[in-house]
Amino acid sequence: MSDRFGDLRRTVNEAAEPGHGEPFDVDILCLEDDARDADLARHALQQSISIRAWRVVSTRAAFIGALAERTPDLILADYSLPDIDGPEALRIAHERCPEVPFIFLSGTIGEERAIETLKLGATDYVIKDRLARLAPAVHRAIAEARVLRSRTAAQTALAAQGAVLKRIVDAIPDLIYAVDRDGRITMANHAVLRMLKRKSQTVMGRPLKEFGGLLGAQFDDAEDQRLMQARRALTEREARLRDSDGAERCHLFSKLPLTDPATGAVNGLLVVSRDITDSRLLEREVLEVTEREQRRVGSDLHDGLGQDLTGLGLMIKGLESELRRENSQHLPQVKRIGEVLRDAFASAHSLARALAPTNLDRGDIMVAIEQLARHCSGLFGVPCEAHGDGKVSVNLSDSAAAHLYRIAQEATVNAAKHASASRIVIELSRTGADLTLAIIDDGIGFDAERAESRVGMGLRTMAYRARMLGGSLRTVRGPNGGTRVECRFPIKQNQAAA
């Protein structure tokens, strides 16, 4: 049997053995000009094979007509006939029904010629005076053909599924591409090609880092090698990419190790990257609107309700003086009203300063944080300190200062209300081109599993504000217990315009 089916031999051998696979019920076309030889061949096969149809032809025209009438399951052919020879019959069969097994049955074929027929694509050959080999050869050929048909059908179905999958991937607006272990692009959907303004053949096989800010911002060889080594996915990392026109876009991307289905070895990474520029701008605008609204409410509290309460306080003082001169029995009640009014004024004033920190308007974030520490100490009765390292005098934009202040405010309130802390420290420090805000407490400590349920939206909002600053937020257990909330971000992109 031809070596081109070497990977199928085991399956074919099992299928060709008696008792394996489905019973053979075959349609055989026999190209033979000797009726006696044809009868002998049929008799040899009938001992072990159910022949559904047996057609014998002896000329070229009859052979072509029989193939046109219907496709047989097997072709038996003599090598030498007056009207047609074996190689020509094999060529015709391969043109019209290439999947049908073809066995030469000849008494004149020699070993050298027999080998040549196999090279031409014949399934097998049998010498007429050795008809005992015919049935096993037919068994094997039919089994082989069935396996090949099954594999071809599976490959066709797989190719169709692959084509559908490719169309789906190409229709997705996200950037989807794959790289091998050397960081070379092995697959890219239409979104990637549109972004690069290139054709597939100019992208495939090229190192990802060659594309600079376009896709290179998502390339980190050391990290990628660690991901593939650990078979670990990387999810939701942000990067700023530039499109082919130079416009900067914000992308949220993930990386997933790709494995070889045959060996199970990791042979690359799949990257899915979504453009979130518009949503980030919208989210930023929502936060800025919220911040402006908080400041407006704070100003209204200070200028409106605060002034009214101040006026009422003066009136109460005047009433107290009048009642004191008259030695009125209502003086204690009026004094109590005055105390409640002063407490209300203090609360309104404190709330107004929390909603609209006056120092943020002057860009002095350190002074605003010191004010926050004093406010926290007074409101919750927990000692709260603010420290700067002397190098943090930076002129942040209004938006950046507001984000940083709100992170400090949220973390400080969480520590005072939920952590049972006896001391809170707010630190602002500068390291190179970055600014770091840290809120440290000595409370019950950070529990990653319970944190989300404790602070809920607050933790997510702090993390989001950190991303708006182009930085990150870390919440960890302190070395001596308690919790450390740390936000680190680049100074340059958050400075106020000159």
Describe the structure.
It is a single chain. The chain folds into four domains: 3-155, 3-Layer(aba) Sandwich (Rossmann fold); 172-275, Beta-Lactamase (2-Layer Sandwich); 277-356; 360-498, Histidine kinase-like ATPase, C-terminal domain (Heat Shock Protein 90), CATH 3.30.565.10. The chain has 15 helices and 15 strands. It has helices at residues 9-16, 35-46, 60-69, 86-96, 111-120, 134-171, 190-196, 212-215, 221-230, 277-326, 331-355, 365-380, 398-418, 448-455, 457-468; strands at residues 25-31, 50-57, 74-77, 102-106, 124-127, 175-180, 185-188, 234-242, 248-259, 266-275, 384-388, 424-431, 434-441, 472-477, 483-490. Strands 2-1-3-4-5 form a five-stranded parallel beta sheet, with helices on both faces. Strands 7-6-10-9-8 form a five-stranded antiparallel beta sheet, sandwiched between helices. Strands 11-12-13-15-14 form a five-stranded mixed beta sheet. The protein is rod-shaped and about 145 Å long. Mean pLDDT is 81; it is low at 1-23 and 448-455.
Summarize the entry for a quick read.
The chain has 498 residues and is of the alpha/beta class. 49% of the residues lie in helices and 21% in strands. The strands form three sheets. It has a five-stranded parallel beta sheet, with helices on both faces.
Please work out how many helical segments DSSP would assign. 15
CATH fold node name of the largest domain:
Rossmann fold
Q: For the record, what CATH class of the largest domain applies?
A: Alpha Beta
Span between N and C termini?
83 Å
Q: What's the helix-strand series?
A: HEHEHEHEHEHEEHHHEEEHHHEHEEHHEE
- List the uncertain runs: 1-23, 448-455
Alpha carbon gyration radius: 42 Å
What's the overall geometry?
Answer: rod-shaped
> Main sheet: which strands, in order across?
2-1-3-4-5
Helix content: 40-55%
**CATH architecture type of the largest domain:** 3-Layer(aba) Sandwich
- The CATH fourth-level homologous superfamily of the largest domain: Response regulator
Number of strands: 15
Report mean pLDDT, rounded to a whole number: 81
**β-sheet strand percentage:** 15-25%
How many domains, in number, for the residues? 4
